[in-house]
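hey all, quick one before standup. I had two proteins in the batch that finished overnight and I want to keep them in one place so we stop losing track of which output belongs to which input. First protein below, input sequence then structure tokens straight from the run.
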Amino acid sequence: MDMVEKTQETTTREERKTRRRLERQEKQQAKQSSKSEGKIRIRLIPLWLRIIIVLLLIVGCVAVGLMVGYGVVGDGNPSDALKWSTWQHIIDLIKKP
């Protein structure tokens, strides 16, 4: 009698596991179908504008870094870091043997 009860108990456990797995699969399928049927997302800022903004931020950060490095660390005038003559002088120093 005990063997029959254990067999029935394991069967019910397996059935419960199977039911839970099927329920989870149905929920996942319902989520996926609702996502595909959902509303279309309209971006506030278009992708091309985001790229331009990021590039401008990079250029701005480089300029500020140059000015801080030249003005604070190098004891020079910070606005001189953005002048072409300063860079030409640095290039001449590097190229001269």
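OK second protein, same deal, sequence then tokens:
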Amino acid sequence: MKDSAELDEADLVLINALQVAPRAPWAVIAKAMDVSPVTAARRWQRLRSAGLAWITAYGGHFVHQDHCLAFVDVDCAPGEISRIAGRLAEHPGIASVEQASGRRDLLLTVMVSGLGALPRLHTDVLGPLPGVTAVRSHIVTRFFAEGAGWEIGAISGDQRDGIRGPASRPGGGPPPEPDAEDRALLLALGADGRMAYSDLADLTAMSESTVRRRVGRLLRAKVLVLRCEVAHSVSPYPVFVTYHATVQSDALERIGPALAALPEVRMCASVASEHNLVVNGWLRSIPDSHRLESFIARRFPEVTILGRSLTLANTKRMGWILDQAGRAVRHVPIDLWH
């Protein structure tokens, strides 16, 4: 019998299908897998119960437009890194916590209510922690790619098109700021992105029809982002690399999307800092980090990589506390209104 901590090809197809369409009906997912809907649902439940794969949710465009998203480097005293990472992982405004090689001990992804909340995070949360020796923030100005758009590469283009279906037309105008009811849905879906509409209705005290309508609107407007995640220990891409780079401002609009299109690149963002570009890749091996950097240098001579680091441990990823193998343990809501 297959070990419960391993992924077979059918598991990878299932995960990839849910990366394409996290809330697609089981009948659609099952067709791509060539199994019954009951089998697909049971297989997903096994993966989710073991913490090997999960679907989370978080705020989309409105966070960048009306609030503040930043990457924060934290330097720690020797021997204090794991303890500090565990403490920071419990904070609702800190979406992700990574322990890293190189010049940065911890890499945080932070979502807070506004620019003014960032220094308060420095002074009230990070500064008082014993063992924190330095903090540096890099405010995101634009995402060229982010984790919800990355795929594990286990399905064909035809399968992807069948799962995704016809593109839905986004609503007109800028994405709205979520109201109290929308926020409740966003936080609930962070714990289970495939939660049934009936369960969401019970949890939020709204009618099922209202919940269905609101969730659809939030997804179309990209106010709500759903992401299917996988534990790195069982992923074909267990190595995470982050590059901090600089590029001429007039070339950023051309190079950013081109970097984001590379299959290894999971996240690419421009930032306001001493460097202006952060690139994160998921790779098959440690040597691949050098090969990717060499390719970027050849393909994009305008890019100067100033620093690089490998993720040593993922303490928290987009609202989920992880164990040492990267398996999901429990959810800490990403609540920038906290």
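Flagging for whoever picks this up: Residues 66 and 314 are 28 Å apart (CA to CA). The first strand starts at residue 53 and ends at 59.
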